[in-house]
Here is the input.
Amino acid sequence: MNRVVKVARMQLINKWSFLGIPMVILVASTLMTFAIWALLPASAREGTLYSGSGQAVMWYFLALGIQSLTFTFPFSQAMSVSRRTFYLGTLGLFATIAMGYAILYYLLGLVEKATGGWGFNGQLFALGWIAGNNAAIQILFYFVAMVLLFMIGFWAATVYMRWKATGLLIAGIGFAVVLLGLVALATLNDAWPQVGAWFAAMQVLGLSIVLGGLCVLLAGGSYLTLRRATT
Amino acid sequence: MEATPAPAIEVRNLTKTYREANALDSVSLSLEANRIYGLLGRNGAGKTTLMSILSGQGFPTGGQVLIHGKDPYENDGTLARICFIRESQRYPDDFNARQAFRAAALFFANWDQELAERLIEDFALPTKRRIKKLSRGQLSAVGVIIGMAARAEITVFDEPYLGLDAVARQIFYDRLVEDYSLHPRTIVLSSHLIDEIANLLEHVVVIDKGRIILDEDADSLRGSAFAVTGNQEKVAAFIEGRRVLHRDSLGSLASVTIQARLGATERAMAAELGLEISPVPLQQLVVRTTMAAQTEPRGDHYQEALK
Amino acid sequence: MGAIDDSRPIFIQIAELVESEIVAGTMAEETQVPSTNEFAAYYRINPATAAKGVNLLVERGILYKKRGIGMFVATGARDQLLGKRRSAFAAQYIQPLAREARKLGIDAETLASMVRQSLAADAAEGSVR
Here is the structure.
């Protein structure tokens, strides 16, 4: 059996991290939302009810990105796994899981619409601005969003492993400087209206592509960082 | 003509520099396949640094490591032949020992579950408790079991006995000899409990301050140094011209450790002078050699380090 | 069996231990000797070292190998070893004895009678056993 697949199997030896906990979070947060909606007084139930609880799993994926590196990378070294193989196996496993959840989100969105928002006229999965798109775009968006959060966690953890707190601090400051630079650039050139228009014009597909590009950058950065990291 | 097989481990001019100091200083070694090596030295001598570079886990600043002729770094084919469990090995926080063994069974092709089970029983290891919550000795046992049951062609043990009591250590040594007899492989055993492992070793490498100061077959080391005890003047006459590793004196009585092989005539001469000749155990020999290396004027390396 | 010490290479000590067993008669001629791995496990030594010791005795004709079965004590091995030990006896025991005697001022006559007495006592003890 391929060693990359074995890394994925190693990550799944304890099934809770990758499989159990996300499912528990999804089910619990959904049920809790339903409970809250049911308890709302009739006056507050007019119009559409929105909930962000569908995002809960996504934030867990950020933590999972950190954990899948810090917990398992030092051990994978003792298992005589190359850094490349560890990287491919771990990311491959997560991509598979993220794809599963993206499809699940899409399907739950369909159910939501079919049941009149779970009988509450609620919006939990089929958020208006996403649900208007076709299946492929919806799934792509969910997938990219999940992978992005995982990659942020994974990359931050590799930076910490290689350069410790100093590295993380410098990376954080660097990120803030770039962001501030962009803001300053827009402000100095009085370009905010254009920026606003650009964002408004960008559809879910466009956003997915931009975020996807970020994912690729983070994935590349993680690999280069990990290649020379020591436990 | 058949090419001679590459040594199991070959190290050429390996150097590792951390900000403060040289962890490894131009180390060269050649370790043959299917022998048991002892890597001995004080704490901080560079043992772990060397072992982690050997196993592709660490990076050298300069020089080269070849495992069966190939660089292990990022080379899965070569890495699969090595098992190196660190003394401070970290395991996934949510793993128990049984899960760690299941992972090892995935990656080490020669993994022997029966041997693992037997060792679990020998060490009375609780396999369902999280590794995080194990005692130091139990943690060492997890590493020992992985290292033994993996039966990797090159198995590296980094001070595997920490926290193990005398009985558990004896179990480890016994099982190691037993399993090695049936499944010969290259074993590198880093330790500073030299007396305990001395008889298991075929070859001894002593490292001090990042330099190899001794690289010798264990059996040729035995009998390569002697302590000469007796009247100070007579001892002085007897050891004339020999390399002295250590001196002790008590009044007019002197005891001097010399590096020398003594033949029958020399023994007779010592007896004639009323001097007592006693063998030096490997542990003492290593300690004496290390201390002698530290006090003797250094070669070029030391001069370079001073600059 | 004795134990391993640090004075000399272990393989030589293994060879000598086997020789002593043969001289004492505990390992009879034409019987099988323990395997290399058994020696290694018993003395907690490296199997390769044990093999080196056993091979030394094969070279000297004390042991011989039966293919696929193991090592056996050769016929005549005991006599050969006794001969060797007898010729080493003077250097190994008599000379140090003489040296110590001179140091203590024991003359030849006294030494001889002491040896005779000791021999008689040992023989008596042996017969009791």
Q: What stands out?
A: The CA atoms of residues 103 and 139 of chain A lie 6 Å apart. Chain A has a mean pLDDT of 90. Chain A touches chain B through 25 residues (CB under 8 Å). The radius of gyration of chain A is 20 Å.
